[in-house]
Amino acid sequence: MFVDERIVTLFKRNAHHTLTYWSVFFSFGLCIAFLGPTILDLQCQTNSTLSQITWVFFSQQFCLLIGSSIGGVFKRTLFSALSALFVSALIISVIFAIIPLCNNVLLLAIAMAVSGFAMGIIDTIANIQLVTIYQRDSAVFLQALHFFIGFGALVSPLIADPFLSETGCGNHTGNGTEIMHHFRNMLRNSPIAEHNITQSYLPHEGEEEESSVHYAFWIMAVINLPVPMAVLFLMYREQLIPFCRSSTPRLLDKDELAMENQQGAEGPDVEHKEHEAGGHGDIFSCCRNDNLRELPVSFFMIHVLGGMVLFMTDGIVGAYAGFVYTYAVAPPMSLSHKAAGYLASIFWAAITAGRLLSIPLSYRFQPVRLLMFNLAGAIVTVLMLLIFYTSNTFLFVGTCLCGLFLSSIFPCMLAYTEDILDYQGCATSVLVTSAGMGEMVMQVLVGSIIQTEGSYSFLLCGMIIACIGFILFIGLLLFHRMHRNYLAGPTKKSAMVDEPTPEQNGSTITEQKEETETS
After folding, report:
1. What is the dihedral angle through the alpha carbons of 88, 91, 96, 98, rounded to the nearest 10 degrees?
2. Statement: residue 53 has pLDDT above 50
3. Distance between CA 69 and CA 433 in Å, rounded?
4. Phi, psi of 405 (to 5 degrees)
5. pLDDT at 451 (0 to 100)
6. What is the largest CA-CA distance in the chain?
7. What local confidence, expressed as pLDDT, does residue 293 receive?
């Protein structure tokens, strides 16, 4: 059988929770990709300059980082986790609905900041909850979770495309400099957006057309509404909504007698409470914990190096998606604007396909092997792009390969580090935050270098970043060995946490609900 029956059984046991967490990541992908193809229409709507409208993009990414950093505080009970997911998913629909009413760039930036904060909370909580449920079997389900980001990111520009203005509104600066061309196409990394860049930035006297992009936002708001409704229905089934108790048994109650640990029973004396030094809380609570001084250096370095690897790899994802168009239209490639416009879509499609392909692979292979293969593949791909820097064909092939290799690094790293730490650290919050920081910082850094050194530096930056990420991963492997030796030593019981980890496959969710009901 291609998938082990035990994995199928685990999924069936937690299917409602799992499908709900996957659906909220569709909201995440839907929200993260719409700004690119609609940015010029929003510029016309707010009567702003291009430099002003780019701060809207930054506000979303910055607040996404903040939301990711503090999202772990909502994990303490199942009620708080699901409530945060419900409110966050509902906020995304509300933001989609009110964006057409934002006629000022400041109002638009505030709206996007709120949506970014909601996306950050979704990112952290959904990852934490799946890791908590499946623990050592979480790699397969994390791959599927991150597939839905790519799926939502592909749907968003498809919805927006029929409503995009072809000629602009005539309030652009009229200067066709390279930096303006770059910013437009960095933000409009959509396969569907095939507007001619030169025409978009030249004034169009007498050719203004009224934008109908507000219909796209309202359609996306409606499409996203089933997601918060799905979260609310899960809360109803789990009897977490006050004054609205379901008559059917709770989902987990029906399976509690069938639950067993994947590595054997923990014994009757297992206490179901979070570890004080970890337990997937937010970063700030992890840093404040008094028990941290008792933990070995390897414990901290696994967090740091895992986060730095994702800082680099997710930075490559953000930089490549944002700047591949600029590289393609400049010499020596000199592709047409229409042909170059497909590169970003190929990249995102490859990431989506790669995450789908990684679902069965993560069951067959250990996360560390997939990480090694993907990091090495990304380096080789960028190296080949550097060697064949004049080949238009290989640029498309290399873009596809780059997306495939980078697609599953985040979920594999998450599963790998959580497994190393025996699900007692703060790896999920650290990795989600580091990945968001990398994507934001690397876009600014690589963009500045391209502007001063030329388009060829785009691939050089990618090669350097990928090599640094691989070196950091080697360091992570070394500290993994050190940590494993530490755990095998006689000091394990006294130095590490006193409480064992929660029982796997749903027992932590049961505990969260019991805490909610008794409070």
Report:
1. -160
2. yes
3. 6
4. -70, -35
5. 74
6. 81
7. 67
Say what the pLDDT of residue 308 is.
94
Report the alpha-carbon distance of residue 180 to residue 197 in Å, rounded.
Answer: 10
Neighbours of 51 (CB within 10 A): 11
Please give the C-alpha separations between residue 412 and each of 32, 120, 151, 183, in angstroms, as whole numbers.
Answer: 22, 20, 19, 32
Coil/strand/helix, residue 14: coil
d(CA 322, CA 360): 30
Residue 389: C-alpha distances to residues 263, 326, 383, 392, 395 (Å): 50, 14, 10, 8, 8
List, in order, residues 6 or more apart from 108 with CB less than 8 Å away: 42, 45, 46, 53, 56, 99, 102
Is the pLDDT at 480 greater than 70, yes or no? yes
Number of residues that this document lists for the chain: 519
CA distance 271 to 499: 7
Per-residue pLDDT at 379? 95
Question: What's the CA gap between 201 and 182, in Å, rounded?
Answer: 12
Quote the distance between the C-alpha of residue 439 and its chain's center. Answer: 10
Give the lowest-confidence range in 165-174, 191-200, 243-252.
191-200
User: Is the predicted pLDDT of residue 354 greater than 80, yes or no?
Assistant: yes
Residues 6+ apart with CB under 8 A from 332: 389, 390
Q: How far apart are CA 459 and CA 326, in angstroms?
A: 12
CA distance 407 to 5: 26
Q: Which two tokens stand for residue 101?
A: 């009413």
Radius of gyration of the chain (CA): 23
Burial (CB count <10 Å: 0-12, 13-18, 19+), residue 389? middle
Closest CA to 13 of 139, 133, 106, 124: 133
Q: What are the tens digits of pLDDT across the range 101-138?
A: 988 889 998 998 999 899 889 888 888 888 888 877 77
Nearest 5°: the CA angle 312, 318, 321 is 135
- Residue 447 phi/psi, 5-degree rounding, is -60, -40
pLDDT greater at residue 278 or residue 355 = 355
Contact 148, 164 (CB under 8 A): no
CA angle (138, 144, 150) in 5-degree steps: 140
pLDDT at position 390 is 87
Closest Cα to residue 35, out of 104, 114, 124, 99?
99
Single out the residue of 105, 144, 136 nearest to residue 21, CA to CA: 144
DSSP per residue, 259-321 = ---TT----TT------TT-TT--HHHHHH-GGGGGS-HHHHHHHHHHHHHHHHHHHHHHHHH
Q: What is the mean pLDDT of the chain?
A: 75
| Region class of 422: left (phi > 0), else alpha (psi between -120 and 50), else beta | left
Q: How many CB atoms lie within 10 A of CB 103?
A: 10
pLDDT in tens, 200-242: 444 444 444 566 788 889 999 999 999 999 999 988 888 887 7
